[in-house]
Design a protein that fits this description.
homodimer, about 325 residues, alpha/beta, UDP-N-acetylmuramoyl-L-alanine:D-glutamate ligase, nine-stranded mixed beta sheet, four-stranded mixed beta sheet, 11 helices, 13 strands, about 35% helix, PfkB_Carbo_kinase (chains A, B), Carboh/pur_kinase_PfkB_CS (chains A, B), PfkB_dom (chains A, B), Fructokinase (chains A, B)
């Protein structure tokens, strides 16, 4: 268990955050289309939460590395070049004999339904280079994407094991959705089974509902704690968040004053939270800073925005 | 063996051509892009040779049905609607729990390298409805797509078996390419193994080279005959084609006078050839008519163009 006023000892390592998971192409429709799929024009973007978080934390002033797998194809080359243009280290990104994963999103005013084309992303393997990257990092982060399919799942099981033995802080985004999961498999059960093996989880209300069914937020929080979660940060959209370490439960009001685009707001939280922990803040302070970074991001369009250094955000939000 | 002046007896069945195989989305870049993949804009099109051939033959004046599998997603719904708008029967198209297959083509002035996202197309199963469609048809056509992956391969093995026992003419496009094949499997070997089970094959020079290595066209033709092919139509691009039934080898000059776009020229040949056989022409006449339809198509942009009835083309080309 973590005391909220503790400063988590993260040791002295050359890298701060290791983000492990999907790097992919988002192919997004140019127009809104409510169900008919008549829209023909699409635009490609680089996507995937790990690279978004890694880029964010760099801008906030800490170091990061990405571990992913992309195809030996034009899309893979494009994604690597995009990251290199942002001065990211791409040496942890594996090139595999598969198509670079792709998500088609046809924009909708109701609920956009993505179509998933997964191939390279879950071919990520555990190798000596990944082992070294874990040993050199303070925090490791991953979401449900890489654990949803083998062999990436086995890779992540090794990552968790190594990270635990090397004393890294492990953050897990339980963004469970049956559509990304291996067909015919009980993904919710697997997600629940690894919650006790990580340190911090940040479910949304929707994530909790997909895992446990509908219930009140406080009850959902308890279910995560019963599964062995050490620190649960449950986000409630415009209603802020509730956080518990199993001993103390806190409510956080949303710090957002202007909401332009919610894309990437959760990853912005993770980014601020991790950057604050690395900079020596307590868990309680890091939570406030995470929500501040998320509120900052909400003012701009896009999953990754030009964040200032963490101390600028800290001052802006009077934290 | 077929005598070239024979009229193939195709019996009295309610449907003329059954085209079995891939129905998918082609996502094509709006601009030419030679290797850098910097082009961001793409446009979706409906794709897949079976539906192209089925639509072509309808325009030429014979009846057709398509058997394919698409996903339970927006792309699948879009593809069915497109076919319905063309008055095609879509009842043979299976909806499966997978993403509608997608091919991304980034246009290039050198060689465009497609990225394949296959999922729903190879989930096609053999069912009572497919069995009935075979019994009701005179000709069945397929290409390398459905045989390149299981379970669709097993479905096609059943299709071939049923078609043979019901006396259908079987046309096979041996458009072998390792990129669509199941990774780690010798696709060329499999393609060779089914050549003796079909009636007509139409390899291009490139197909022959991928199957046998480089050699002179006449030598390649012999290799197909040695594998048990009954009628081989080997296309040589602007140099026309050579055709053999194992007894007689004919050369055909290209009938093209104006080449605007070569996309779909091979499928236009098949369409004209099948339509002519159905209308009671001999194999020799059907070959001429197939090349005439292909030459007609070359004057227009797109895989499927507004073909006139077969007798109009026959007259235009003085056949």
């Amino acid at each position: 268990m973590f005391e909220l006023d503790d400063i988590i000892p993260l040791g002295d390592k050359p890298n701060d955050l290791l983000a492990v998971g999907e790097l992919l192409i988002d192919m997004i429709s140019n127009e809104y289309d409510d169900g008919s799929f008549e829209c023909d024009g699409y635009t490609k973007f680089s996507g995937g939460a790990p690279s978004n978080i890694a880029m964010n934390v760099n801008r906030l002033g800490i170091r990061s590395e990405i571990v992913s797998a992309v195809g030996n194809d034009g899309f893979g080359t494009y994604l690597l070049r995009r990251l290199q243009q942002e001065d990211m280290d791409t040496k942890g990104i594996q090139r595999v004999d598969a198509s670079t994963s792709l998500v088609v999103v046809t924009k909708s005013r109701t609920t956009p339904i993505p179509i998933f084309y997964r191939d390279a992303d879950y071919q990520m393997t555990f190798d000596a280079s990944l082992e070294q990257r874990i040993a050199n990092s303070k925090i490791v982060h991953f979401s449900c994407w890489p654990i949803s399919r083998t062999p990436a799942r086995h890779t992540l099981e090794r990552v968790i094991e190594e990270a635990r033995s090397q004393g890294l802080l492990i953050g897990f985004d339980p963004n469970y959705h049956p559509m990304i999961w291996q067909r015919g498999e009980d993904g919710a059960q697997y997600v629940k089974s690894i919650i006790s093996k990580v340190d911090v989880i940040k479910p949304s209300e929707d994530d909790a509902e997909r895992l446990f069914g509908k219930d009140e937020p406080v009850k959902q929080l308890e279910k995560f704690l019963e599964l062995g979660a050490k620190l649960v940060i449950m986000t409630l959209g415009k209603d802020g968040a509730i956080v518990s370490n199993g001993k103390e439960t806190l409510s956080f009001d949303s710090l957002a004053t202007e909401i332009v685009d919610t894309t990437g707001a959760g990853d912005a939280f993770w980014s601020g939270f991790y950057a604050a922990l690395i900079k020596g803040h307590s868990i309680r302070e890091a939570l406030h800073l995470g929500f501040a970074v998320s509120a900052y991001k909400l003012r701009f369009t896009g999953a990754v925005v030009h964040l200032p250094r963490l101390d600028v955000i800290k001052e802006q939000f009077s934290l």
